[in-house]
Amino acid sequence: MYHNNNLIRKINFFYNSIFKFLNNIRIDLVDTGDRETLKKLRLTNSKGIGTVWLLNLKRLYKLFIKKNYNEKNYHFLDIGCGNGIPLIYAYKKFNFSSYSGFDFKNEYVENSMKNIKSSLQKPEEIKIFFQNAENFFLDEKKSFFIFMFNPFNRIVMKKFLENNFKILKKNKSVIAYCNFIELDEIKNFSNDITLISKYKLALVRF
Predict the structure, then answer these.
(1) Angle CA(149)–CA(117)–CA(27) in degrees, nearest 5?
(2) What's the domain range around 50?
(3) How far apart are alpha carbons 206 and 189 in whole angstroms?
């Protein structure tokens, strides 16, 4: 499997490390394997807390473009933005209309802001805020490219989708989902899903 392939892991680690070095990013999440911490953060379905392999975000973006979407018409939203590194990567590499992210842990929101300020000349162009996905409602006037790196459990996923399904469908938004543990829950809301199974990636269209 992909996550057990040492060569691929090394390539991904090197790619992430180079990007962080070149962009003066100094704060990252670390997978401690602390199950109690994961339990407190309601991430017991996750293998750990860490930053997504950026090459996987790139793969999802390429699949999005291949489906003939115009990125300039979409807003990039990172749900569970961690320390902001995928947001910075997307801002540097892609051409979405705007960029924002949120997390429900104040420490992550603060660290995201620090990373953004240290790596961008115009840090105000990425909006970071504190929010719980259970209580979050999308802007009904925008189409979204929603990036998720398995940020929460099935209960929260269901609540987020129930709250936002009509908006997602109305504006033809997509969810770019890494490490798709809760994919079965998403299937209750959309059957238009393209998988890259080797890397546990899914592009969900509404």
Answers:
(1) 50
(2) 2-205
(3) 8
